[in-house]
Here is the input.
Amino acid sequence: MKKQQNILIIGAGLCGSLLALRLGQRGYNVSLYEMRPDIRTANISAGRSINLALSDRGIKAMKLAGIEDKVRELCIPMNGRMLHDIEGKMVMAPYSGREHEYINSISRGLLNGLLLNEAEKHDNVKIHFNKKCKSVDFENTTALFKDYKSNTEFVEDADVIIATDGAGSALRKSYYLGKKFLFSFSQEWLSHGYKELSFLPTENGGFKTYKNALHIWGRDSFMLIALPNLDGSFTVTLFLSYEDGEYNFGNLTTEEKVIEFFQKYFKDALELMPNLIEDFFTNPTSPLGTVKCSPWHYKGNTLLMGDAAHAIVPFYGQGMNASFEDVTVFDKVLDEGHEDWETIFKTYEKHRKRDTDAIADLAIDNFHEMKGHVNNAIFREKRNLEMALEKNFPDNYSSKYSLVTFNEDISYHEAMLKGRAQDKAILNMLADKELDLNDDLKTNLEKVKAATQEILDEDRVAKDFKH
Amino acid sequence: MKKQQNILIIGAGLCGSLLALRLGQRGYNVSLYEMRPDIRTANISAGRSINLALSDRGIKAMKLAGIEDKVRELCIPMNGRMLHDIEGKMVMAPYSGREHEYINSISRGLLNGLLLNEAEKHDNVKIHFNKKCKSVDFENTTALFKDYKSNTEFVEDADVIIATDGAGSALRKSYYLGKKFLFSFSQEWLSHGYKELSFLPTENGGFKTYKNALHIWGRDSFMLIALPNLDGSFTVTLFLSYEDGEYNFGNLTTEEKVIEFFQKYFKDALELMPNLIEDFFTNPTSPLGTVKCSPWHYKGNTLLMGDAAHAIVPFYGQGMNASFEDVTVFDKVLDEGHEDWETIFKTYEKHRKRDTDAIADLAIDNFHEMKGHVNNAIFREKRNLEMALEKNFPDNYSSKYSLVTFNEDISYHEAMLKGRAQDKAILNMLADKELDLNDDLKTNLEKVKAATQEILDEDRVAKDFKH
Here is the structure.
């Protein structure tokens, strides 16, 4: 296929910027359109920048684009979950028994800016800000934009259009409303919403609590988390039901009630948040949703990628990583040298869809794990055993969390099947006292492996009759 | 709550008509609006009426409305699946080992007409035809209608509005497009579509093939089925992929190719279908979809029921039965004497949602079972064992099919969990040669029960950590 083809990308967020960079590197003519102003020059106050957890799947994509070193400079390693109990006691629960396996807190704004800078270095990549896509004519491969500066509308055409415009994608909306083909689609909302808060840096720019961890205050039906930023601040997020329970977003309407709630459940965090009330009543409460759909493409004309195709809840720290992995997988399909875009898009979706469905489901499971199970005795026994297995048999055992987060060459779907079977095996053996944690570790490894394999085999026999 | 309340029901199909009848019996003022002409007087040619499978959950609702006897007169019992292999050989596979358990072929039009007749006997029930609901203002509890006769639009208000207007529900669309609350929604299409065909009666009005069965020509990736009608005809349905495989709806475009396809795969059926070509090219090809959503209600103003809330694929023969069961469950909630409609709607959805999700998933599983597994040796061994267990231990064993179809006092969700665990237990024990079909039946019953219980226990331990 000719490289001089014109590719229009809608949305210059993390996925769109990386895609523009990579397609630019491959020699395509890329036009990247973004509804917001340029994130590199827009006024974003320090300490309020949202951060994300970058892990091995995302880093693999950074390597592909040759920018791993620059990205590493923006990262703060988080080696585990720092669990805060209701008394204020802290326990560090590592993410892995292998020391080199950790996740990284990174600023969305700084990373996005870096990707835009790198993309712009290519003469064949043009970036346009303040231009919002309103709809896509997927039969004629044109997109309708509104220019927020001139307040006018215009139409752009291209050889292919790729929409990386997030959970509210204009292309996906056009697929849905167009009714030109059978478009499967789902949006599922959690009963919980979230609100961002913050710990500001100390007066001399230091961190008010332990820097290299993802802090969790899990309270069964709600939770608070905190991730560190380079400037010494932490971005803190409260996940809470909209309507249910004694305290919820619906009834936290006065300063007194908010303080009372934090005093009761997050006492040690409250001490670090003199700015709580201002944050709480200034920042919006936002919903948490999962979007799945299929097909992602229309013929060889248009394609959905990133959150536009598969928005997920944030509890596995994999939303950005999954979107970056989309680019890795798409790049690999381009390497296969298919004749036309329709085959490329079809092949890409066929490889990828099962994996993005898997991480969507895993992310919902992890919500329950984070807010509740980390405090549960049998869950902690499982994690302790897994940490010991990973440490002592580094080449022979990976927990579900490790499979998802640190094993970028295993697909999400495979990680889900194997990880869930392992969890089921260990939890059942612990519940039935078939595992003795004082036993020889090697014996326990073999028991876990055998029970996991039996679960996988039995599921396979049953599943063969479902599909 | 006062009985003089005005209830507006949108859609006079099977669910809406039964609901109008039942709410009429309970003394409410009911206005029932339908977009189509009156099905009792509209010209529907005999032999082409669509038929459905009425089973115990549906019959329970008929009993509640006091019309079981009248409905029974419209029924043709089907005692099992008549499996037609590619050579034309037939084998009867019973639905149950208990003789009194069978399903019933019934005409949609005749049953709907009966329900309308019964509803109309109540002075407090008014039915309006040719009036299509375009949208619902769920905050003000009003509905906008178009009158197809006068070609004018008008607005109706009511104390509550219940939408039973099917898979394309106007109320559900208003919920989705209104964006006034977090509305979870999914539509999933199968890659297969369906087309209705027919066996006409013999010249003297008899049945051309065995009357008391649901006939299946399962061919792994596609299938044909036939259900008997009172007039001696059968309604025949072809389920086939739109795009994939050697033959599909996309490429069956000539008479020659259609005949070739039927000659090759459905030879014995073709002999009964001199009218095949006319049917094939006259009747539409329609898609097969599943719709789920939540919440079903908005405050105490509006409620979705039947297919409007949960459209499912037809492969378990449970679409109509599930909608009728909605009315049974709703009626029971009304009996509880709640103070206001919001509590009634919330309670109803809380009871019901898990069950309609379950039957939606079971119906998709059964698609694979019908087109393929019925031909598979191990599947047949499982069914033979289950038939023997049901026959010899009628009070002590029910297959998944029996739990879903003949056990109206067990919820769909419970039937799914138990039925899937039983299937998994039996299939794995057969695959591992842990069940000997020549063994004492009592021994095998106990083995199946023990293995099923173990699966349920292990799933429960693992699931406690997912939610």
Observations:
- The longest strand of chain A covers residues 184-199.
- The CA atoms of residues 120 and 126 of chain A lie 7 Å apart.
- The first helix of chain A runs from residue 14 to 25.
- DSSP finds 14 helices and 19 strands in chain A.
